[in-house]
Amino acid sequence: MKPPSLEPPSAEPPLPAPVLDMRHVSVSYGAHVPAVLGVDLTIRPREIVGIIGESGSGKSTLAHSVLGLLPKTARMSGTRFNLAGTDILKADRTALAALRGPAAAMIFQNPMTAFSPIHTLGRQLTDLLWRDRDPSGAQKRARIVAALAEVGIPDPVGRLDAFPFQLSGGMLQRVAIAAALLMQPALLIADEPTTALDVTMEAQILHLMRSLRERAGVSILIISHHLGVIAEICDRVAVMYAGRIVEEGTVEAIFRAPRHPYTQALFACEPALVPTGMRRLPVIAGEVPRPGASLCDFASRCAVKAARCVEQAPPWTRSGEFPGHHVRCHGSALSGSPPSGRTP
Ligand SMILES: Nc1ncnc2c1ncn2[C@@H]1O[C@H](COP(=O)(O)OP(=O)(O)OP(=O)(O)O)[C@@H](O)[C@H]1O
């Protein structure tokens, strides 16, 4: 007779292996300038994760580290840094280059910088498919035309002979998304993908990115200063300040119950969509300090700073009623009353 199992019945199926798994990852430029400090970040298949934070908080450095796009002066360390099963910390430049495309691809703020100005779009999109064997090129061409049509490029066949400067910024960003459709990377990194676009085009690009997740199963890491974009498209949000993630949670948790004084201040600085009078927008006084300059890097700008904030490093604490909501702040860990949030 089969002995009874001693394993407790598992209530939920195990989570799929993450596409990106970072543990205590730091990046510094030169010997003494840390830009990213001890970051833990996990992105699972089909997840859309957003990073918000002021200029200089380390968002782009973090994104570039995933793609091996950091300058040679940059130094990376960590206890784990896996992208689609590859250990980024052990990979050399050739191995990192091989990951671009199948493992991770990037969409930039200015799509013009993503394309060569001297080659046609057809040629550049064909180059992305260099791994595929197709001697006549007919299958590649058909796939490219289908991808361009899917992202709403009018006359996709005619556009194969166009140069990047012949398309508007919004159209070119669509072509960048078509490129991602062709490569089907495990992870798409989008660094301010809609900042240069008008609101109509922004909505269309966000819609296309969401359909990339639905149709191709792509995970997305999106960086944006625009909180509306993050609320619209993300499942989870990480708030970066001075190289560290200071708060992380679902969109609902971060927008409805932000706990870190920095996250609250970021929201307070966001202009209201409907004007509420001639109120001056608040600003966060001071500047982002050098990461690691003090135990809590926000203490010098924090309106609710307490003595312990400069005596002990703030703990990474589970916070509030939302699962997976964490914050790195003494004050939030202690206070029970949720601050006023926003409707995502
Ligand atoms: N190539 C570089 N060499 C030296 N320092 C750099 C380099 N790139 C970025 N830094 C510094 O690293 C820190 C983080 O910069 P990073 O561009 O990652 O921030 P960010 O949050 O993406 O800012 P932004 O929103 O303005 O793009 C800043 O202090 C910046 O000056």
From TrEMBL:
Domain ABC transporter intervals: 20-267
Keyword line:
ATP-binding, Cell membrane, Membrane, Nucleotide-binding, Transport
Q: Name one Pfam family in it.
A: ABC_tran
Q: Which PROSITE patterns match?
A: ABC_TRANSPORTER_1, ABC_TRANSPORTER_2
GO biological-process terms attached to the record: peptide transport; transmembrane transport
SMART domains for the chain: AAA (SM00382)
Instruction: State the superkingdom.
Output: Bacteria
Enumerate the subcellular locations listed in this protein's record, separating them with semicolons. Answer: Cell inner membrane
> What membrane topology is annotated for this entry?
Peripheral membrane protein
- Listed GO molecular functions? ATP binding; ATP hydrolysis activity
Principal location listed in the UniProt entry: membrane
One GO CC term, this protein: plasma membrane
**Does the keyword section mention Transport?**
yes
Q: Which NCBIfam families match?
A: oligo_HPY
What's this protein's name? Answer: Peptide/nickel transport system ATP-binding protein
Q: Which organism is it from?
A: Ancylobacter tetraedralis
